[in-house]
Design goal:
The chain is α+β, with helices and mostly antiparallel strands and 181 residues long. The chain folds into 2 domains: 108 residues, 2-Layer Sandwich (Alpha-Beta Plaits), CATH 3.30.70.940; 48 residues, SH3 type barrels (Roll), CATH 2.30.30. The strands form 3 sheets. It has a 5-stranded antiparallel sheet, with no helix packed on it. Strands 2-5-1-6 form a 4-stranded antiparallel sheet. A hairpin with an 8-residue loop joins strand 7 and strand 8. The longest helix is centred in the first third of the chain and has 14 residues. Participates in transcription elongation, termination and antitermination. One of its GO terms (cellular component) is cytosol. Keywords: Transcription, Transcription antitermination, Transcription regulation, Transcription termination. Belongs to the NusG family.
């Protein structure tokens, strides 16, 4: 069965060779017209990390999926075979001969393009801003506070808690607090 629409696929590559494989595929796209008509986008998912070196903040780009490459293509057996025999490629996620496409929602999550309405439909937030809660887990167990912010992506709450006579913000998970009656 030949796919006739653009779908995302995951190529397994030798770890550390991701950029080389991407360059090689891009070079093949310039030479092979059939491949160029069926391959649309090649991505190396990266994430930014901030570290301190010698007292200075340094931002480092790192691969978020070492050993994998994302590819948007119309996958046919010919295209799959061509990509499979590129140096340093181990195969496809889902099988060598019949690669499985990845859902667009999963690709959006990897790339950080999640649709917030989609997330809100999936997650029913049990808390509301301004609601009083009691901390039931962690080092601040027993403290009472008021919810200031809700982050449904990370299942976290920003709760203002009175500690030593001052309001202090705490970032707590949904499971670390309970509603007060």
């Amino acid at each position: 069965m030949v796919s006739t629409e653009r779908k995302w696929y995951v190529i397994r590559v030798i770890s550390g060779k991701e950029a080389k494989v991407k360059e090689y595929i891009e070079a093949e796209l310039r030479q092979d017209r059939k491949l160029a008509e069926n391959v649309f986008e090649i991505l190396l998912p990266t994430e930014s990390r901030t570290t301190l070196r010698n007292g200075k903040r340094v931002v480092i780009e790192r691969l978020s999926l070492p050993g994998y490459l994302l590819l948007q293509a119309n996958m046919s057996p010919e295209v799959a075979s061509t990509l499979r025999f590129i140096p340093n490629v181990l195969g496809f996620l889902g099988g060598i001969s019949n690669p499985s496409p990845v859902r667009q929602t999963d690709i959006n999550k990897l790339l950080g393009n999640s649709d917030y309405s989609e997330l809100n439909n999936l997650v029913k937030t049990p808390y509301k801003v301004g609601e009083s809660v009691k901390v039931i887990d962690g080092p601040f167990t027993g403290f009472h506070g008021v919810i200031e912010e809700i982050n449904t992506d990370k299942y976290k709450l920003k709760v203002m808690v009175m500690i030593f006579g001052r309001q202090n913000p705490l970032e707590l998970g949904f499971m670390q607090v309970a509603k007060e009656d």
